[in-house]
Amino acid sequence: AAAKTKPGTAVIDALIDREQERFLKTHPRSAAAWAEGKQHFLYGGPSHWMRRWAGGFPVYAAEASGAHIRDMDGHDYVDFCLGDTGGMCGHAPEAVTRAAVRQLERGATMMLPTENSLWVGAELSRRFGLPYWTLTTSATDANRGAIRIARMITGRNKVLVFSGCYHGGVEEAHVEIRDGRIGMRNMIHPNGVDHSAVSKVVEFNDIEALERALAPGDVACVLTEPLMTNFGMIPVADGFHRALREITRRTDTVLIIDETHTISCGPGGYTRLHGLEPDIFVAGKAIAGGIPAGMFGVSQEVANRLWKIVPHVNPRERQSAHLGIGGTLAGNALTVAAMRAVLEEVLTPQNYATMIANASRLAEGARRIIEANRLPWHVTQIGARAEIMFTPEPPRSGADVIATRRGDLETLLHALYMNEGILVTPFHTMFLMCPATTAEDVDRHTNVLGRFVELVRDAGV
Ligand code: PMP
């Protein structure tokens, strides 16, 4: 969270200190484990993302089941983070565990297709509407593959993204607009990439800026989520998708819709729910129930154009080029078996209905507290996902988020959540439901949010 200096910050800082001290006292095993981890991991844990928790250090997970995690110190958490979406099927979903164990016993990775892949390919086309698919090991990799294909078929270099986006470790997308200037998001290192040569960035929902940016005809693709979920949720304005599709078609720019998070909207993602027509559809994280996976689907037209450049050929014709996409483990038998279990038994219409009902319950509970206390905050809900933001209105763009974000309040709220047995994604205040989330889980959150409001009120913030 980008902490801002605003009135009340010193008071809030003191409250954060208090919550972190409480957290340290009540989580001695995790604290000791974190100290030990720092000796062997570059940033304390196996992945640097694991250090970002507001308690000051992460809890160490002992086990997880459904919507709950138990840590090393024996605390129970209702998990609304769900691995930042990778756990959206719930932890240890039975169908996935069964399928994965069965496949592990038959071989995890062979660089050969299995019969399950036939079912999965047909289901992906049926669900999401695009005819041809490729599997990868992560959503990042799927985005990289999609961008590569867009460049191959258009002969152009640039990737256009919206300020405040996140699409994984995709170099081209690490840009943002801050104070009217284009720079690196989160001051991330440019990594030797000349972003002025490979990226364009405009504000989300800004049709005129999009039109101007695509007019020169040097953009291979627009890469976007259907609505933004990684910078606080930024809803999409009426008519934006229509304009985006029309302008990208007119300028022969490939439209890549990244549904890695918005797949929480329903069985066919936001795309199916709202009739979007992406040229390339990307998803990942949740689709194999927590086993690493990503995928992208392409339209018939994209496939035809690609096949002209890299045709299907008999392997004896050695000139068949490799595409520079994915890796040895992509589409492995284990991942595919898990994907089948997810698509067949977990991410079903019935389970989505439960997840969405619980997200609505959470959003309504939070809105009741906000209204009763006349707080200038709001809640956005989209499908099985909800977000609380400390502004009266939803942002329309990344610029709005930058101008109004209350990093201090977010950190305090997150530190309190950690102490009260609630996990939310550490990057902003977003809640995701899984099929196992219950109304009781949601109500635990509503109670804690009520306590947060009392805490800041008593402190005079
Ligand atoms: N796309 C979107 C929209 C994401 O939110 C993320 C991860 N937060 C990614 C892609 C990258 O996913 P992964 O880290 O699994 O590669």
Plain-language structure description:
- This protein folds into two domains: 181 residues, Aspartate Aminotransferase, domain 1 (Alpha-Beta Complex); 253 residues, 3-Layer(aba) Sandwich (Aspartate Aminotransferase, domain 2).
- The chain is built from 15 helices and 16 strands.
- A seven-stranded mixed sheet has the order 4-12-11-10-9-5-8, sandwiched between helices.
- α1 packs parallel to α14.
- It is globular and about 70 Å long.
- The two termini are 19 Å apart.
- The chain binds 4'-deoxy-4'-aminopyridoxal-5'-phosphate (PMP).
- 4'-deoxy-4'-aminopyridoxal-5'-phosphate binds next to α5.
- Belongs to the class-III pyridoxal-phosphate-dependent aminotransferase family.
- GO terms for molecular function: pyridoxal phosphate binding; transaminase activity.
What is the structure about, briefly put?
This is Aminotransferase class III-fold pyridoxal phosphate-dependent enzyme. The chain has 461 residues and is an alpha/beta fold.
